[in-house]
Amino acid sequence: MHPFFAFVILSGTLFLLGGCGDQSHLNRSPSALLKSGAEMASRFAFYEAEEKLRAAREAFPPGSEGWQEASYLLAVSLRHQTPITARKIGEARETLEGLLERVPDSALAPEALMLLARMDELRNFPGDPTDVEAAAARYRLLLEQFPESDLADLAVLRLAAQGTLDPANMEAARSSVAMIEERIAARPNSPYLWPMWEFVASTHLLLFKDNSAALRAMIEADKHSRLNEGRRGNLFWNIAVLAEETGDRATAKAYYRRLFERAKRSPLNTEAKLRLEALEAADGGQG
Asked: Is the pLDDT of residue 199 over 70?
């Protein structure tokens, strides 16, 4: 699988300009066209990528691996061109649905289902209606057909998020948290542990008003964060403040200290130092 695939799935809001095409593809092999198109897409040159990927898709035998890859990347390129239009979104949908219809067990099927679901869920252009139910159906299909895929973890996260759209429906929100926690237990090495724990934390904090549960989930999010500590200032601050509010002064001091010592560029750095000094003074100078 091309390394660009995982990136474009999570980039549903990219709006970058491409340039004009040329005719250099006329005497190139399908594989060379595909490689060139993929490289252009990875540089966000989506218009140039479209030209190469169309040519590659037409040259590869339908259903072949090259055809599948060219189809998927063509849909990605159409989706991310600006201005976004109904025609481009429609063709992107048709291309992805054609891929799934011809090769339902394609290695790119999870990516295709995820991109289709996101297009259903998002307003792609002015006047474009959203279809949350259609998106949910695709997420469930992805989870059912490819349960061990990393993108199935993301599908669970999206389904859980839909369950919290109505803040008055606490039962749905609790089911969403249970769904995420079950998935975390089943997939302890998922690359999406960080956002899943953040979802649990924010739901406990904002909907359930359970600060203690939110704090535990935030600490888990920190354990699984893929950001280096220098870029985790806001997370350190949130954990420290919540710990202080719940009376867990040891955790509060530990996270204020981490922020001050390891997130030097955070705008909260000085404030963390002051809060740490205040807590230590109140505790008789104990760290």
From this structure: yes
Number of domains in the chain: 3
- The CATH number of residue 26's host domain is 1.25.40
pLDDT of residue 21: 46
Q: Which two tokens stand for residue 113?
A: 């289902």
Helices (H), 2-108: 4-9, 30-42, 46-59, 65-80, 86-102
* In the predicted structure, residue 18 carries a pLDDT above the cut 90: no
Task: Give dist(CA 280, CA 130) in Å, integer.
Answer: 52
Are the CB atoms for 173 and 210 separated by under 8 Å? no
Closest residue by Cα to residue 45 from 96, 80, 83: 80
- In this structure, what DSSP letter does residue 227 have? S
Which of 208, 223, 238 is the endpoint of a domain?
223
Judge whether 78 and 50 are in contact, CB under 8 Å.
yes
Stated pTM of the model = 0.84
Q: Could you tell me if 30 and 139 lie in one domain?
A: no
| CA dist., res. 88 & res. 79, Å (int) | 7
**Could you list the residue range(s) of the whole structural domain that residue 173 is in?**
131-223
| Cα 152 from Cα 62, distance rounded (Å) | 27
Q: Is there a contact between 187 and 207 (Cβ–Cβ < 8 Å)?
A: no
**H or E element in which residue 156 lies:** helix 150-162
Give the residue from 80, 107, 126 where a domain finishes.
Answer: 126
Q: What is the pLDDT of residues 216-268, one digit of tens each?
A: 999 999 999 998 888 899 999 999 999 999 999 999 999 999 999 999 999 99
